[in-house]
Amino acid sequence: MRAFNAELSKLFSLPGIWLAFLIGAFAPAVIAALVITQQKAEIIATGLSEAGYDGLGFGVQGVIILGVLAVSSEYLTESSESGGGRQITTSLTVVPSRLHFLLAKAGAVTVISILLCMVAMMTTASATQLILGEYAPVFFEWSRLIGVVCYWTFNALLAFGMTVLTKNGMIPLAVLIINSSVVSFSVLLSKVTKLAFYLPDRAGLEMFMFFNDRSHGIFNKFYTPFTGGLVMFAWVVVLFIAAAIVFHRRDVAS
Asked: What's the gap between Cα 12 and its chain centre?
């Protein structure tokens, strides 16, 4: 528990974490507002229940940054006044068990991701209500909101695992941010091969995005929400195991 509390304290001390919070809290609402403004007439006419959820699906950049920062900050070289070393050396001195260290850090990322997702859901629901007024669909469907929380948390942990493997925040940050906000590689691949439906982000979206009609969007139903969540969770577990093995064998001084 002490290691977990220490990791929470370290995360909140990072300057970049506040950018992650800001993006995580408001990017989904902005994306949802833009989409709803463009499709307002259709939403009012059809009562499309996806209003707002698309913002939560594509607005995960905040937790991606969180997952990357949690690991990459350990490898930054400290100032000469602090000895010019790296935080990872101190961290593993305090918590000698590398697995315990990773689990504590992943736990801290998970807790903050859940809290940030809850804030994002409130801002997105407010934006949806503000634009659509009485025509706003029922947003608080608990099964779907739980899916959103899982999707955000799994994305943060995927970013976490990728950063452990690479020791460099730029690669996972660039790949995951581009994939979630600019162009989704899995969505593009899904038009070519059904294997793309087994990619984590594509499977995970089906925990709360239920488009059955192509005229309403790009997400056709392929999994049940539970199965989609299991596929994404399996990716998280496999990546975490690989990251733990690599981290266990890695020379910290390198």
From this structure: 18
